Amino acid sequence: MSADESTPVHDDAVAELASIRQSIDNIDAAVIHMLAERFKYTQRVGYLKAAAGMPAADPGREQVQVARLRQLAAESHLDPAFAEKFLNFIVAEVIHHHERIAGGGA
């Protein structure tokens, strides 16, 4: 039997793989939508901070968020270090946006 020939096990694996990939695609879409929603709110925060003369970064809040999300990650069986790296990436982007807003560039 050649590698091209179909077998029931192979067909089942291909079907399951397609189903799993569809679920992953759906989750990726949801993550993008959630990030877009999150950035809408952080943009509002940036305008409020700029109007009040507050700094773009808030290290105390960031520390609390890191600890909270590391705990959530651990409870969800996700590597807390990965969750922290992901949050740090998002926070860096938010701070960049806040600095731009404070500098007059929306």
Key attributes of the depicted protein:
single chain; 106 residues; mainly alpha; 3 helices; 80% helix; elongated
The first-to-last residue Cα distance is 63 Å
Low-confidence stretches: none
| Range of strand content | under 5%
Order of helices and strands: HHH
> Quick one: how many beta strands?
0
The helical percent reads over 70%
What is the residue-averaged pLDDT? Answer: 94
Number of helices: 3
Describe this structure in words.
- With 106 residues, the protein is an all-alpha fold.
- The protein contains three helices and no strands.
- Helix 1 packs parallel to helix 3 (80-102) and helix 2 (59-75) runs antiparallel to helix 3 (80-102).
- It is elongated, with a radius of gyration of 21 Å.
Task: Summarize the structure in short.
The protein is mainly alpha-helical.
List the helices and strands and how they pair.
Blueprint: H1 8-52, H2 59-75, H3 80-102
Helix pairs in contact: 1-3, 2-3
